[in-house]
Design goal:
123 residues; mainly alpha; Multidrug-efflux Transporter Regulator, Chain: A, Domain 2; two-stranded antiparallel sheet; 5 helices; 2 strands; elongated; MerR family transcriptional regulator; DNA-bd_dom_put_sf; MerR_fam
Length: 123
């Protein structure tokens, strides 16, 4: 299918499709007329890419997992492990942000009356 059709079916712009192709996330053959010709499976692949991005995966991480996806059900345990690692990473970032939020709230609560005239002064 041509790039316009793929764009319409996935909701991605032509520029996005070209970007994904340049990054190795999408492959197209060249037709005799020089146009890109994408396989039908590209729609499903791009759905995976978009979902993975929404779940916090980088394009590099997604590209690394493409061979596993091609392996089908045999790769399910490895993909589950990858998802578990990403979940642990997200939990770690949430904990760090909660700590940062607590510190910031504490500094905002400090007032000149309790000896803190500049909330950015080292504690």
């Amino acid at each position: 299918m041509q790039i316009g059709t793929l764009s319409a079916r996935t909701g991605l712009s032509r520029d996005s499709l070209r970007f994904y192709e340049k990054r190795g996330l999408l492959q197209a053959r060249r037709a005799a007329n020089g146009y890109r010709d994408y396989p039908e499976e590209a729609v499903q692949w791009l759905g995976y890419v978009r979902t993975a991005q929404q779940l916090g995966f980088t394009l590099a991480e997604i590209a690394a997992d493409l061979p596993r996806l091609a392996a089908g059900d045999a790769a399910a345990p490895a993909l589950r492990a990858t998802l578990a690692r990403k979940l642990a990473d997200i939990d770690g970032r949430i904990a760090a942000l909660q700590g940062l939020r607590t510190e910031l709230a504490s500094r905002l609560a400090d007032t000149p009356e309790n000896g803190m005239d500049c909330p950015l002064r080292p504690a």
